[in-house]
Design a protein that fits this description.
Helix content: 55-70%
Shape: globular
Largest sheet: 2 strands, antiparallel
Number of strands: 2
Distance between the termini: 25 Å
Strand order of the largest sheet: 1-2
Structural class: mainly alpha
Mean pLDDT: 79
Radius of gyration: 25 Å
Number of helices: 16
Strand content: under 5%
Length: about 300
């Protein structure tokens, strides 16, 4: 580890420091990113040290804020988030600031911040996180309908999947159960699994190593999601109207099988949509065998081979 693992923008900030100090601070910030979710208390130690050596570097303040939040040190986290916001004018961590206010027993202050003009500056992912936090505050206040409405935002689209979709779908399903709409909740929970399969997230993801600060994120285009419940939801709910004798108990018994089938279907859709990269055909295989035969006769053969999280 050299400290050069940080993104260019962060390294640019740190290079305003004396060279030896800059190198040390950079290494500590890399450690924050690597241990943030696995050993958050260790990450917080590194973040605090970075702040002690680079208090005027916004990236150090941001690292300390996120690390304190992950450790449940909400007062410290809120302080650092405010400092970062004041230094940069960036509202990206507004959802976490709202959650800190909630955790500190100030729901009114949290809701005031959640409805401020700064919300308009948030990207889609941050707006989703904010909606989930607000839904939690409403639920804590006993306002279950308000919790449900807080999640009914433009990003709640069961036919389009983004990185935030599984989390939003599950939160909406939980809110639906809170108002005794269990059948609808089950549909959204199933769709969360479909989204994960299509996006390669959750149980369908491959292990990755994340640093706290990376390159500029790409704008998500989203993927189309299969919706097996669409026709079912448009039909009447009662067995007589639907012309069937299927009960809710039967639907619940089949739920697990349906989830697995939906996930498999979504995975196939994703695989079909992915561009083929060097996929061999039958003709290619035959040609390869021929080349191998020639190679055994003394000829030298060389082969070349020419969505997102």
């Amino acid at each position: 580890m050299t400290g050069e693992e940080l993104d260019r923008a962060t390294l640019h900030q740190i290079r305003s420091l004396e060279a030896t100090n800059a190198e040390g601070v950079a290494k500590h910030l890399v450690m924050v990113g690597r241990y943030l979710y696995d050993v958050p208390e260790f990450a917080l130690e590194h973040a605090r040290y970075a702040v002690s050596r680079a208090g005027r570097v916004a990236a150090a303040r941001e690292a300390a804020a996120v690390a304190a939040y992950e450790n449940g040190e909400y007062h410290e986290a809120l302080k650092e988030f405010r400092t970062f916001r004041r230094m940069t004018g960036d509202d990206v961590h507004l959802p976490l600031m709202v959650d800190c206010e909630r955790a500190l027993g100030k729901p009114d202050k949290a809701l005031e911040l959640a409805t401020s003009e700064a919300v308009e500056n948030l990207d889609a992912n941050a707006k989703v996180e904010l909606a989930i936090v607000v839904a939690g505050i409403r639920r804590d206040q006993g306002d279950l309908e308000g919790s449900l409405k807080a999640l009914e935002i433009p990003q709640l689209d069961r036919n389009r999947g983004f990185s935030y979709s599984p989390r939003l779908f599950r939160a909406y399903g939980e809110a639906l159960r809170g108002v005794d709409r269990d059948r609808e909740a089950q549909g959204w929970e199933r769709q969360a699994v479909v989204a994960e399969a299509a996006l390669g997230l959750g149980q369908f993801s491959e292990p990755e190593i994340f640093d706290l600060v990376g390159e500029e994120p790409e704008v998500e285009e989203g993927v189309t999601l299969a919706d097996p419940d669409e026709s079912t939801e448009s039909a009447p709910d009662t067995a007589d109207d639907a012309g069937t004798d299927t009960t809710d108990a039967d639907a619940d018994a089949d739920a697990d099988d349906d989830v697995a089938a939906d996930a498999e279907a979504a995975s196939e859709v994703r695989a079909d949509e992915a561009p083929a990269v060097g996929a061999p055909t039958t003709e290619d295989a035959t040609a390869t065998e021929a080349e191998a035969t020639e190679a055994t006769g003394g000829a030298a053969a060389t082969e070349g081979s020419d969505l997102d999280r």
